Amino acid sequence: MNIGPNNVAIFHYTLRNESGEQLETSRGGEPSAYLHGANNIIPGLEKAMAGHAAGDVFSATLVPEDAYGERDPERQQRVPAKHLVFKGKLKSGMVVQLNTSDGRMPVTVIKAGRHSAHIDTNHPLAGQSLTFDVEVIDVRAATEEEIAHGHAHGPGGHHH
Fold it and tell me: Sorting pLDDT into bands at 50, 70 and 90, what band is 159?
């Protein structure tokens, strides 16, 4: 079975930046799973996954607009430190979580003050070309429940 709409793809990946530095990997842990066509992963990776089958190994290099987008200088703001989730002392350059009405999102601290911080809400990987080294482990038909919920369930997917 090939990856296509309403299929669940289970895969391992290694993510590298433009310099070839490894940023993260699922290898050595549980593979990731997503429902194809439900926008569960970044657009360029989902497009690159289409048509592949279990056992396929490939690399996909994504330009910023197909990954986490271009950096937007307008996405900087000052927020009270109490809205940030971090351990230790808040410092410039740290990637922390910002509590929002839509849940937590990663932000980068530009300047830390005693009671507030100047943050950049662009995704930390925005503006970068990224390479995914992918190994497709399995492809299966999604269940009716997965299609209704808009995401894969079980190992590597969403847990209710």
Answer: low
State pLDDT tens for residues 90-132.
Answer: 999 999 999 988 899 989 999 999 899 999 999 989 999 999 9
As a residue count, the chain comes to: 160
Torsions phi, psi for 64 (to 5 deg): -50, -45
> What is this structure's pTM?
0.82
Q: DSSP letter string over the chain?
A: -B--TTEEEEEEEEEE-TT--EEEE-TTSPPEEEETTTT-S-HHHHHHHTT-BTT-EEEEEE-GGGTT----TT-EEEEEGGGEE-SSS--TT-EEEEEETTEEEEEEEEEE-SSEEEEE-S-TTTT--EEEEEEEEEEEEPPHHHHHHTS-BSTTSB--
CATH class for the domain made up of 7-68+126-149: alpha beta
Q: Is the CATH number 2.40.10.330 carried by domain 76-120?
A: yes
Residue 43, φ and ψ in degrees, nearest 5: -55, -45
- Domain chopping of the chain, boundaries: 7-68+126-149, 76-120
